[in-house]
Amino acid sequence: MGIYTHKALDLLEKHQLDAAIAEKFLGWKLEDDPEKSSCKRWFDENGKPTKYGTGCGMKLFHPSEDLNIAFPEIIERLKESNLTITCTVACDIYTCGIYNDKQREMAHWYDETLGVAICKAALKLLIRKAKKESPQ
Question: Which Gene3D superfamilies does the annotation name (predicted)?
């Protein structure tokens, strides 16, 4: 699984960011939907279909823009891993930090939109984990 660098993460556009969250953070795959020809659907890490797809009546996966998606898919996944996310806003800039159960910061990101800050903090967490796990 390829992991983004900090610079590459900074340059991700929202559509690419949403796909990176699905693929890298959640472990999902975008595949042909057997029930709807010429449509693609996101399948979870266990191969089960999600409610998200690329149209055809399915909900689009845009956690960077829709907090109703970011909360159950990203924040709940963090909670399952005993991680906490805290977000603040000052001068129209959102800052989100991800912390372990000892309140140690694992990753953070700031952006003009809350959804992007949440998504990029989650991906930055993966960068940090990959660096920690890679042999020196």
Answer: Bacillus phage protein-like
